[in-house]
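Quick sanity check, Formamidopyrimidine-DNA glycosylase:
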Amino acid sequence: MPEMPELQGLVNFLSERIVGRRVTKVRVVSIAALKTYDPPVESLEQATVLSVSRHGKFIDIATPEVHLVFHLAKAGWLRWYETLPTVPTKPSARSPLALRIGFDDESGFDLTEAGTKKSLAVSLVRSPSDVPGISTLGPDPLDPSFTREVLAEIVSARRTQIKGVLRDQTIIAGIGNAYSDEILHAARMSPYALASSLENVEIGILHNAIIETLTDASAAAAGRPPADLKDAKRRGMRVHGRRGEICPVCGDTVRSVFFADRSLEYCPTCQTGGKLLADRRLSRILK
């Protein structure tokens, strides 16, 4: 799933190419991906792009009257074309194509989604706050207002595992499964540590890990075309997606815990005092 650094990379890429451009083509290929009906899709055609921005994991393309807002979900992505294909788009259950947008210089992009579980969401709204997922977002961790004190207030009120706190978009916006693994590894903290039990020193360490991990990943994504962003993300991971590999910090073996629709990765030496986490949803550290 694309997370904040990759999505900010997409925002930067699109900003350089489509701001000031006029939309000449809008083709909704997957009706299930379109979550709104008012304003109509036709209202986007011939509109000039004013800006491209990010709200958590949502990308917002603003025009004078309407905003095209999309969330790539777990398996969605953006495919950029310097020259948009002229082959007609046709709805198909087998096609990954969900939406095609073209501009007045013949460039454009497709929104695609792999797999059979379709969760990619596209909304055409008058204000981004009209999208339910945006209106409930927590603070952006790379905003200057996200201070150590803000994080302390967040964790003190939650008797839940810190991994879940980091992934919850209503608590902190933009961090997902991958970067929460990386942040907790950098902080040398168990994913099952109770948020409300963190001491002041630990909160400071976690705050630094959040800022440094996301800042470094955003820098690595800057300037890359969409086709390169996924590989850049994978290369930058120290533990996430690296089960069975060697931890680059201590040399221990990276381990996984599997859940119904995802897994988490961690280093026992760096994060759990050398103890392994049981591989079940209500896991406890093995004795």
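Posting the structure with no commentary besides this: Residues 149 and 257 are 31 Å apart (CA to CA).
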